Amino acid sequence: MVKKILLGLGLVLLVIQFVRPAKNLSSTPPGKEDFIVALAPPPEIKQMLQVGCYDCHSDNTRYPWYAEIQPSGWWLKQHIDDGKREFNFSTFGEYSAKKQGKKVEAIIDVVTDRSMPLKSYTWIHRDAIFTDAQIKALTTWLEGVQEKLGEEK
Questions:
Q1: Calpha distance 74→24 (Å, rounded)
Q2: pTM of full prediction above 0.70
Q3: Average per-residue pLDDT for the chain
Q4: Alpha-carbon torsion 126, 67, 119, 82, what sign?
Q5: For the chain, what is the HEC assignment?
Q6: Do residues 95 and 103 touch, judged by C-beta distance below 8 A?
Q7: Are 51 and 127 in contact (CB under 8 A)?
Q8: Backbone φ, ψ for residue 25 (5° rounding)
């Protein structure tokens, strides 16, 4: 009986490998609507955003090896879809100035309270664990962006 159950589970795991979610990979390079393109952050800030935010909050994800193994690929797709629904760096320029300001404020809040990047993300992506100095640099730059957006209203 145990052998049949294990064999059945093995077959299910094998079959689900052929049911793959679509990948979050844009066929076009980032345009003027992209947060980094539009705001031209300094290189260290750009790197932090790309490493800590863009995988789940943009139209291009760097996929880890385990994305090829189901059901983890499905879990990642859901995670990315949820992240992009909350905020998509690739479409930042399409937001109204007011919404841009609110999104920047939200980024400051989640980075400052360390609720982003998610712990489940930083388990594998150790380069997305930011030091206090990096968080200070990022939030200082974002506060400058906020001021600039406020002037454009």
A1: 12
A2: yes
A3: 88
A4: positive
A5: CHHHHHHHHHHHHHHHCCCCCCCCECCCCCCCCCHHHHHCCCHHHHHHHHHHCHHHHCCECCCCHHHHCCCHHHHHHHHHHHHHHHCCHHHHHHCCHHHHHHHHHHHHHHHHCCCCCCHHHHCCCHHHCCCHHHHHHHHHHHHHHHHHHHHHC
A6: yes
A7: yes
A8: -135, 110
Question: What residue type is 17 in one-letter code?
Answer: Q
* HSE, side-chain direction, 13 A CA sphere, residue 125: 24
Closest to 142 measured CA to CA, from 12, 41, 58: 41
Contacts within 8 Å (CB) and 24+ apart, 136-142: 137/44, 137/45, 137/48, 138/45, 138/48, 138/49, 138/111, 139/108, 139/111, 139/112, 141/41, 141/42, 141/45, 142/104, 142/107, 142/108, 142/111
Rounded CA separation 3/81 (Å): 38
Write out pLDDT tens, residues 16-55: 787 788 888 777 778 889 999 999 999 999 999 999 999 9
Residue with tokens 């079959």, as numbered in its chain = 15
118: which 2 tokens?
């998610």
Measure the CA–CA gap between 14 and 93, rounded to whole angstroms: 43
